[in-house]
Design brief:
By secondary structure, the chain is of the alpha+beta class. The chain contains 7 helices and 12 strands.
């Protein structure tokens, strides 16, 4: 199966890509060489950063579009990058929809990408690493660093999800309820004991109606979609269709293929890169 990229969708991609490049360049300029932070990420330990939000449909479409010069729509290479077309997803106010609509319709650009495999995610990480490092190299007076994007290990993911809270007192790494303007809200997008209606997948950045960040400023570490980790076949965090009790940080899920509740986010490792004798002298 293929997805038809109409003119309007193409223009949306071009504008989104331009915005992505602008954000990257502006982010690099504002941060000193010795205090570099990749755009869209949060520092958790040392030189290790993690995405603030889960990877969205829009970002995954940028990944596919960026590779279109090297493949044709409908080719084996193209099919190996698109989400599993046999999967269906239930969305609030939309009902049950096919993956083609969920992935390709601009209304769902900000929702987490699902229906993808571990191998596809590895290719995404390789592409993201290459593209962002190219941006850094094009900068005048670049910060002499190298970035590597990959899936977090279980240990790294748990550190990010726990934040700076005690793991015994806060097994979810966050208060499971929060109050805003005297109204009480659920902090995690999953099934709470008092819920009697269906629950649905939500936007990665749905910060008003549904979720609250943890102490690191990360959203949806628990609930919404389960997140792949570096250890193949394992995922963390629970998801929108899971019970609250099964969304604790220490809970680990297994999978063998793409799934409607399985997504991911990346970590980014920042390392220094000495490229000249002059740079070596400056580091002393």
């Amino acid at each position: 199966m293929t997805f038809n990229y109409h003119y309007k969708t193409q223009m949306r991609f071009i504008l989104a890509l331009l915005l992505f490049l602008i954000i990257c360049f502006s982010g690099f300029k504002k941060i000193p060489k010795n205090n570099f932070s990749p755009p869209g990420t949060i520092l958790i330990i040392d030189s290790l950063f993690i995405d603030k939000f889960e990877i969205s449909n829009e970002i995954w479409k940028e990944f596919i579009q960026s590779n279109m010069d090297e493949m044709l729509i409908g080719s084996d290479e193209y099919i190996r990058l698109i989400p599993d077309s046999t999967i269906s997803i239930k969305l609030k106010n939309y009902g049950k929809i096919k993956m083609k609509e969920y992935f390709n319709d601009p209304r769902f650009d900000e929702y987490p990408v699902v229906g993808i495999t571990y191998e596809q995610v590895l290719k995404f990480c390789e592409w993201r690493t290459k593209k962002v490092n190219e941006i850094i190299k094009q900068r005048k007076n670049n910060p002499l660093i190298k970035l590597e994007y990959r899936l977090p290990t279980i240990h790294e993911w748990e550190i990010a999800a726990q934040g700076n809270l005690d793991s015994i007192k806060y097994p979810f790494g966050i208060d499971i309820y929060y109050t805003l303007d005297v109204n009480k809200y659920r902090s995690i997008n999953c099934y709470y004991p008092e819920m009697t209606s269906l629950n649905y997948i939500r936007k990665t950045n749905d910060t008003l109606q549904n979720i609250k960040s943890n102490s690191y400023g990360l959203y949806n570490m628990l609930g919404n979609v389960c997140e792949m980790v570096f250890e193949k076949g394992l995922a963390k965090g629970g998801h929108y269709d899971a019970l609250l009790e099964n969304c604790k940080i220490k809970e680990t899920y297994t999978y063998s293929s793409a799934n409607k509740w399985l997504g991911f986010r990346c970590i980014c490792l920042v390392t220094k890169q000495i490229t000249s004798n002059k740079s070596k002298k400056n580091q002393k």
